[in-house]
Specification:
126 residues; mainly beta; Jelly Rolls; 48% strand
Length: 126
């Protein structure tokens, strides 16, 4: 059965190394035609620990670092490592809801503070 769902698949990160204690942001994605449903397919390698969240804005700022975490939004995942996920292989898919915002970005922070982490992530927005 063919379902009528409009989804967009975006490469949020492609083998991006994030140094200990540092953060990286994805590109900025426009949600003006979105229903607010999303998921992220995450793959982490390296000896670090990743925290993945989404940040947003309702204005036209081009500075992703000026985006904010909306009220009642929670992290997509915290403490994700190369042995996390159902297969203990650093891979998992996390669905998450989006607040009504105009634009979002995915933010990944290495939280272990000692080792880097390498992240690949596919974002699906509906």
């Amino acid at each position: 059965m063919d379902l009528d769902r409009s989804t967009t698949v975006l490469q949020a990160f492609s083998s991006i190394e994030i140094l200990a204690g540092e953060s990286e942001y994805s590109d900025i994605y426009d949600l003006t035609k979105s229903a607010g449903n999303a998921s992220i397919q995450l793959e982490v390698t390296g000896n670090g620990t990743a925290r993945v969240e989404w940040v947003g804005t309702n204005d036209d700022t081009a500075l992703v670092t000026a985006f904010i975490t909306p009220n009642n939004a929670s992290d997509i995942v915290t403490a994700f490592t190369k042995t996390s996920g159902p297969g203990s292989n650093g891979k998992h898919i996390y669905p998450f809801g989006l607040s009504l915002v105009k634009k979002i970005a995915i933010k990944v922070t290495e939280t272990g503070g000692v080792n880097p982490v390498t992240v690949t992530a596919l974002l699906v927005i509906q």
